[in-house]
Structure formats: structure tokens, C-alpha cells
Amino acid sequence: MNPTMRQLEALVLVYRLGSITKAAAELRVTQSAISLLIRQIEENFQVKLFDRTTRALHPTAACREAIPAAERILSSARGLAQHMRDLVEVRTGRIALAVSAGVASALLPRILARFRSCYPEVRIDLFDVAPDELLPFVMAGHAEFGIGSFEDDGTSEARIETLMESPLSAIGIRNGRFEKRRRLTWDELAGSDLITMRRGTRIRTQIDEALGQTGQELKPALEVSLITTALALTAEGAGISILPAHMLPKAQFPTLAAVALSQPIVKRHVSLLSRADFTLSPAAEQFAEIARRALSTR
Question: Where is the HTH lysR-type domain (predicted)?
Fold first, then answer.
């Protein structure tokens, strides 16, 4: 039977202090409790640890041999305990986070900066993936949680929390007139060169379905696979991008503005995704809370 941590503590203290009385005071227990702990080790291993006289304790050779190992075990246990406290208090740890490409570009820098200022010792493994790959990536366990735009497919294995929503918008160059529009209709864009996501992407499917219900049809001049491509083309005057307003990183594209589209209004969500059977680590919980606060103000 292996000795308990309490038994090892008693052994080391009695050895170092040379007194059961002093060891008992250190551990805040009675002298008889210390004597019992030492006796339990001796009986368990059938070895004498101390020679007792009326005035002193003298460690045996077996005791002196055992003390270094006992101290290493206690040191490792204390190190583990401190590491666990650091994890709970988010002074250390590691987060594996997956984000869709649009979120990585437009929203993540702000969230990441806030988190690092609060928890600089936490390591972050970041995976920027295509939107359609985000759900399977997280559900496969490659990331602790994910942030992006995706639809709840009703699976009981996923936990999805909406963090924010914004309407699809026309994103164009600031020219003194465009950015002053509070809203545009889809019909008002009919004569413009439109840049949209490629057919088959979720955002394009959502647009086509919404317009189809009102008898309208989207006729883009250019179709792309990446949001950053659409924005870069728009910034160079190639056309007007159709994207969620929150996907416009203003620091990267200061010459662009987003004007909400109506008739119909089509909204896109940014959500936090995790496995329903998976408990987030303390560090991940704090990251999620910072994301909630950051995105709720947008």
C-alpha cells in the first residue's frame, strides 16, 4: 500500500525538525496523530524509521534513504496543486481555438488583444478555417471551441450560443454620399457591379433563398471564395461587396463603408460553438466571456 501525502509530510517534518512535537505544531495536529502517521508507514513497509530515546529521535539508515524520494513526491504534488490553482485562476493554460476566416480578420484581433492584456501567460493555438469546416473541426475535438457564422443543424452534440448578429450590407467605397445612406434596397443595387461569395457557400445560399422568396435574383459581376478577396476588390473599385456588416474590418479597409440592405433584410449571426458534452477550461471560459462583451458592444 502506498503511503499517503499526509504520512509523507509527517515523515519529512519529523526528520527535518527532529521532533514529533515540532512536526505536530507545523501540521497543526496532535503529537499522537504524528506518531500514528509514522507508525503506519513503518508497519506498512515493515521498516524502522526512527530510533526513539527519552530525549530525542534518531533517523535510521532506511529513513535517511527514504527522505529524498519523499521530498521529491511532496514537491511534485505541491507543484501540481499550484499548477491546478493557476489553471483555475487563469494564470496559465492553453486554449485551442478555431475561427472562421471572416471572424479571424474582422473580429478576432480585438478579442485577442483584450484577452492577452488580462491573461498574458495563457497560450493560444489558433486555427483559422473555412466556415463550412468550423463545425466538424470543433466536433472532432481539434479545438476546444469555435467562433464563426454557422447554422444549428439540430445535433445534440453541439452547443451553439449566438454572440451577435448584423444584416447583410452593401460595402462600397466612401465617396461622401455612399456612407451617408442609412439603408439600401436590393433593387437599388440592380445596376451595380456586385461582388458576392461563390455559389454553394452558406452566405450565398442564404441570400439566394431570401431573394427567391420575394421574386428577386442576385446577378453578381464577380464571385469569390474569401471575404478578404471581396473587400480587397471593392477597395480597388471593382464593385460593391455583399457581406455582413461585422465582416468589414475598418482598420484594414478604412476607405470602405457598410450600408444595411433591406427588402428583404437578411441577417447573419456570429456564434460560439462547443461540444455539448465538453466542459470548457477556465481559460476558455474567460476567452468566451471576453468575446461576449466585445461583440455585444458592436
Answer: 3-60
